[in-house]
Amino acid sequence: MTTTFSFSQQLYIDGRRTDGESGTRVTVLNPATEEPIAEVPQAATGDVRRAIAAARTAFDDGPWPRMAPRERAAILLRMAEEMERRLPELVAVNMAEAGSVRWLAESIQTGIPVAHLRDMAERVVPTFAWDRPVDPFVAPGIGIAQGQMRREAFGVCALISAYNFPFFLSMMKLVPALAAGCTVVLKPAPTTPLESLLIGDFADAAGLPPGVLNVVTGDVEAGRELTTNPMVDLVSFTGSDAVGRMVYAQAAGTMKKVILELGGKSASIVRADADLDGAVRGAIGGMTVHAGQGCSLLTRTIVHESLHDELVERIRAGLAGVTVGDPSDPATAMGPLISEAQRDKVEKLIRTGEVEGARIVTGGGRPAGLDKGYYVEPTLFAGVDNSMTIAQTEFFGPVGVVIPFSTDEEAVRIANDSPYGLAGGVWSADTAAAYEIATRIRAGSVSINGGGAGVNPRVAFGGYKQSGLGREWGEFGLDEYLQTKSITWSAR
Ligand code: NAD
Questions:
Q1: Residues 133, 232: one domain?
Q2: Which site in 142, 365, 409, 455 is 20 to 30 Å from 109, CA atoms measured?
Q3: Residues 197 and 283 grouped into a single domain
Q4: At what angle do helices 308-320 and 276-288 cross, to 10 degrees?
Q5: Residues near 407 by Cβ (< 8 Å), separated by ≥ 6?
Q6: 266 by DSSP, 3-state: which?
Q7: In this structure, are 436 and 359 located in the same domain?
Q8: Residue (of 403, 422, 427) closest to 466 by Cα position
Q9: Residue 145: φ, ψ to 5°
Q10: Of 82, 182, 295, 472, which residue is the catalytic one?
Q11: Alpha carbon distance 241, 223 (integer Å)
């Protein structure tokens, strides 16, 4: 079924809607049907520059960075209310452009980011320690030195996000950036621009001053402009580590602050005393939530050798009950991948796993009876050594690997034997032992006995190692969009 949407899908620059300069339009496909659902203008470099200039003027001369936090909070709260009012529309757009099943579209994709905005506006912004007095210091030979520490908005921020959780990822950046008093240019991924373009409507309805939020489309060229333009002070990027490396290099020329939220190959350690029901549920979720297109999903299951065969069999049996298909059907548990290119990448990696000698326990192909849509069967590999490509490379598809261990030491070593460090998990009845292991996993978020990353916006989220730099969410996330200034004065 093709869905069309009536909200404006034009670029949003300086508080106005525009088709931009290029005259080129990009078709947005529903990944479940391969049918077009919208055509959006492709932003030209000139449009991106105008958006950056609008953000610069709004920052340098506009009211937003200078407003009292309570005034900013009131506008952000109005924005949250507007999002709440139009939540059903957001959910529908998300299901159509990202291929989310409904529960995911209503929770992580839209409900949680809107609740995050409300929480930030109501609880954090009004009480945050924006200015801090400093005790006087007796400076020998000088006298009493006095001063103040201020936290000021960082400036113009380029926010570049990935395709898998389009609204969620854009909001993870937008909420703290706006709360801090920054002005922004937001660029969503080219396959999923609609939810970010819709945010322009929420800004208008809330009375956000023009130029504070700008939304452009585009891909590499737009991304290059955003990360090299001297008027931009900060880049916050979510995407692959390959592009993240380019962004880091591109931003170096003008010494921008860079926040990078990149990929993962996160491990879940299942100890011999684990609740196997929970561990099986966790492993199946790690493979099938959003068809495996989640950066922090636990896709490497590292299991005590005594449980290996039983766990593999139970995951296999569980996956047999996962209904794959049209995400708009309430009976569906797992939808499609975003595009043909993404499906090709996942299928090639599956073949690599076979060539390297791992064993496909279940899946490996395309689900029967689905002629349209970018579907891949949930696929489980056993007989995996952690050095294999399939244990080291992010699939971003519904594929999991199981690796046995014999001691906790070995489990931690395998978990940490990865270029990434985004998330991790431990399953054990001995919560003290699980906690000890959690402290040793080199990753930004570790869960114990379930309750994975990505649902609590009051805790920080981000990567160790090549999973990125900086943190999003909560007060840690807000801090990234502030810089510290000292103002000192003479006591004489
Ligand atoms: P991607 O790296 O292909 O693209 C991300 C964004 O970068 C897009 O908006 C794209 O247009 C833009 N871009 C491309 N080239 C650019 C350039 N040279 N300069 C600036 N911008 C450029 O990622 P994707 O396929 O959209 O998303 C999947 C990846 O994102 C996965 O690796 C996943 O793990 C990661 N991800 C990470 C997190 C996190 O929070 N750590 C969350 C979601 C997704």
A1: yes
A2: 365
A3: no
A4: 50
A5: none
A6: strand
A7: yes
A8: 422
A9: -95, 135
A10: 295
A11: 15
Query: How would you label 336-361 residue by residue, b for 16+ Cβ within 10 Å and e otherwise?
Result: bbbbeebbebbbebbeebeebebebb
**Lookup: tokens for 81:** 């209310």
Total domains present in the chain: 2
Take residue 331 and report the two structure tokens written for it: 């009976």
Using CA atoms, how far apart are residues 191 and 421, in angstroms rounded to an integer? 26
Please give the DSSP secondary-structure letter assigned to residue 472: B
Query: Do residues 32 and 23 make contact, with C-beta atoms less than 8 angstroms apart?
Result: no
- Residue 206's CATH number: 3.40.605.10
Ligand 1 atom with least separation from CA of 226: 20
Same domain, 202 and 338: no
Residue 221 annotated to the active site: no
- CATH code for the domain of 396: 3.40.309.10
Residues 258 and 270 in one domain: no
Structural domain contains residue 329: yes
Residue 74 lies in a domain: yes
At 293, list the tokens: 């297109």
In the chain, % helix, strand, coil (3-state, to 5) comes to: 40, 25, 35
User: Does residue 460 fall inside a structural domain?
Assistant: no
The H or E element containing residue 267 is strand 266-270
- Contact in structure between 206 and 82 (CB atoms under 8 Å): yes
Contact 451, 427 (CB under 8 A): no
* pLDDT, tens digit, 9 for 90 and up, residues 179-198: 999 999 999 999 999 999 99
Ligand 1 lining (C-beta closer than 6 Å): 160-164, 169, 187, 189-190, 219-220, 223-224, 227, 238-240, 243, 246-247, 250, 261-264, 295, 394, 396, 422, 463, 468
pLDDT at 453: 75
Shared-domain flag, residues 214 and 131: yes
Q: Is 242 left (phi over 0), alpha (psi -120 to 50) or beta?
A: alpha
Confidence at residue 454, expressed as pLDDT on a 0 to 100 scale: 80
Q: Are residues 122 and 256 in the same domain?
A: yes
Closest C-alpha residue for ligand 1 atom 42? 295
3-state secondary structure of 83: helix
Helix (H) or strand (E) holding 269: strand 266-270
H helices of 109-219, where?
A: 112-119, 166-180, 194-206
H-type alpha helices, 184-262: 194-206, 220-228, 241-252
Considering the domain architecture, whether residues 37 and 171 belong to the same structural domain is answered as yes
Place of tokens 């950036």: 177
Range of 377's domain?
A: 266-455
Residues in the chain, pLDDT under 70: 1-3, 492
Residue 375 lies in a domain: yes
Residues forming a β-bridge with 237: 160, 260
182 annotated active-site: no
The pLDDT tens digits of the residues spanning 6-50 come to: 899 999 999 999 999 999 999 999 999 999 999 999 999 999 999
The one-character DSSP state at 42 is P
